[in-house]
TrEMBL record:
Pathway linked to the protein: Amino-acid biosynthesis; L-threonine biosynthesis; L-threonine from L-aspartate: step 5/5
Keywords: Amino-acid biosynthesis, Lyase, Pyridoxal phosphate, Threonine biosynthesis
Catalysed reactions listed for this entry: O-phospho-L-homoserine + H2O = L-threonine + phosphate
Transmembrane segments: none
PROSITE patterns in alphabetical order: DEHYDRATASE_SER_THR
Domain called Tryptophan synthase beta chain-like PALP: residue spans: 23-317
Protein name: Threonine synthase
Gene3D superfamilies the UniProt entry points to: 3.40.50.1100
Gene: thrC
Family to which the UniProt record says this protein belongs: Belongs to the threonine synthase family.
Keyword Zinc-finger: no
Role summary: Catalyzes the gamma-elimination of phosphate from L-phosphohomoserine and the beta-addition of water to produce L-threonine.
EC number: 4.2.3.1
Length: 354
């Protein structure tokens, strides 16, 4: 049967009524890819839930399709969000699709170029503030409380509803719930959503067990790990450069109830995992996404697994969002040579041969 999009696919689990517009860009239905070499390396069964293949290149499309459909149902004309980039791309795309206005507030100079390009080409009004994501979210909350504008950050509960469908897909694709779900944590909406999804699927008899939720913040932005907001969060993974996660409680609850944990990874660990996924498995995800694999590797090094467990790493965004980071992180530019066979062969030798 032809896939008709997330709202149609999971309508029985979603707040969909007769008058909810069933908009779609065919979000969701993303592949679960077995990480062959990394599974061998860790003596586990490791999979990537590759959310970078959503229509705007990140998991945000799952929540945004639901939030925008509900905004339209309620007669809203304008949506607004703060974003480290991906939420703004998704909001802008679904606003275009649904015929709504879209305003996005981003931290100046701290979003990946691809994400900025998306928000602009989809026609959003893009405003960059001289402050970070946390400040942008405060401002958006203030403005949307006073004006008839729908807030579409993940504090909007419809976002969480849409995003929980990724947990359903993981269970359907594996034929069971995984033992571990490794996930990057920024504003903490996604870990909250996955946990809700796993619990609902389990309650409806679709799975026999629940995964342990292991969430990873970036070291320079590890508010939950530290137990206090970080005033000036810093990390190479700009998508999760967040110092005061809005769904803090949801993340802690997911970790506690599931017997998992919220931990952190360094930028170096993130970039190592980022190169490993691309170079050894052929999967290019953005740096924030690599926090999930980096975290799994970190816990493995600490002796956290007995071996043979099934672990799913959520790869939240596409690597193409942030090409500059990829080029910088391998410190390699293409060799420029003369247009002769000899010069090209010479260059191949220089690069290590055939
Ligand atoms: N990975 C990517 C690629 C993200 O863009 C985000 C969040 C996360 C992980 C963390 O998810 O916030 O639900 O814990 N990006 C938001 C944005 C903040 O504005 O695009 P979270």
């Amino acid at each position: 049967m032809r896939y008709m999009g997330l709202l149609e696919q999971y309508k029985q689990y979603l707040p969909i009524q007769e008058n909810t517009p069933m908009i779609t860009l065919h979000e969701g239905n993303t592949p679960l890819i077995r990480a062959e070499k990394i599974s061998d390396m860790l003596d586990m069964d490791v999979y990537f839930k590759y959310e970078g293949l959503n229509p705007t290149g990140s998991f945000k499309d799952r929540g945004m399709v639901m939030a925008v459909a509900k905004a339209m149902e309620e007669g809203s004309r304008t949506i607004m969000c703060a974003s480290t980039g991906n939420t703004s791309a998704a909001a802008a795309a679904y606003a275009a699709r649904g015929g709504l206005n879209c305003i996005v507030i981003i931290p100046n100079n701290n979003i990946a170029l691809g994400k900025l390009a998306q928000a602009i080409i989809y026609g959003a009004k893009v405003i960059a503030i001289e402050g970070n994501f946390d400040r942008a979210l405060e401002i958006v909350r203030e403005i949307t409380a006073k004006h008839p504008i729908t807030l579409v950050n993940s504090v909007n509960p419809f976002r969480i509803e849409g995003q929980k469908t990724a947990a359903f897909e993981v269970c359907d694709q594996l034929g069971k719930a995984p033992d571990y779900l490794a996930i990057p944590v920024g504003n903490a909406g996604n870990i909250t959503a996955y946990w809700k999804g796993f619990k609902e699927y389990h309650a409806s008899g679709k799975t026999d067990s629940l995964p342990r939720m292991i969430g990873f913040e970036a070291e320079g932005a590890m508010a939950i790990v530290k137990g206090e907001p970080i005033l000036n969060p810093e990390t190479v993974a700009t998508a999760i450069r967040i110092g005061n996660p809005a769904s803090w409680k949801g993340a802690v609850q997911a970790a506690d109830e599931s017997g998992g944990q919220i931990n952190y990874v360094t930028d170096e660990e993130i970039l190592d995992a980022y190169r490993l996924m691309a170079g050894k498995e052929g999967v290019f995800a953005e740096p924030a996404s690599a926090a999930s694999l980096a975290g799994l590797i970190k816990l493995h090094k600490q002796g956290g697994f007995k071996g043979g467990e099934t672990a799913v790493c959520v790869l939240t965004g596409n690597g193409l969002k942030d090409p500059n980071n990829a080029i910088q992180s391998v410190k390699a530019e293409p060799l420029v040579v003369e247009d002769t066979e000899a010069a090209v062969m010479n260059a191949i030798e220089k690069l290590g041969g055939t």
